[in-house]
Design goal:
The chain is mainly β. The chain has one domain: predicted glycosyltransferase like domains (Thrombin, subunit H). It contains no helices and 8 strands. The protein has a 6-stranded antiparallel barrel with strand order 2-3-4-8-7-5. The model has no long low-confidence stretch (mean pLDDT 86). GO terms for molecular function: cyclic-di-GMP binding. Pfam families: PilZ.
């Protein structure tokens, strides 16, 4: 089956946490794969799909912690979220479309 993707995906197991106005608390997650404009996440909680931006804070792998006060995080939109098919672990998977907050070069 051919995929119509703009960029190739790279495997990852980076731990992270999702912060969203639609969630009461941050949702721990793991990045399964990534590309320059998107992420595939695995997590225990279901994330609402929509046009509400979410922030994704990467974990410090040595300490095993997430710094929610850090100014370094990824921003994106949850484009789909579903329970993992055939999974017995109860995990959900979600696709995130990343957006940049940097000014565009053509804006002058």
């Amino acid at each position: 089956m051919s995929e119509n993707r703009k960029y190739n995906r790279t495997a990852s197991l980076q731990r992270c946490a999702i912060v969203s106005p639609s969630l009461d608390t941050p949702c721990p997650a793991r990045i399964i794969n990534q590309s320059p404009d998107g992420l595939l996440l695995e997590m225990d909680c279901e994330i609402p799909v929509g046009d509400v931006p979410v922030n994704i804070y990467l974990a410090d792998e040595l300490r095993g912690t997430v710094d929610y006060e850090s100014s370094t995080f990824l921003t994106g939109f949850i484009r789909w979220c579903k329970k993992e098919e055939g999974g017995w672990s109860g995990f959900f998977q979600a696709g995130v479309q990343l957006v940049t907050t940097a000014p565009r070069k053509d804006w002058r």
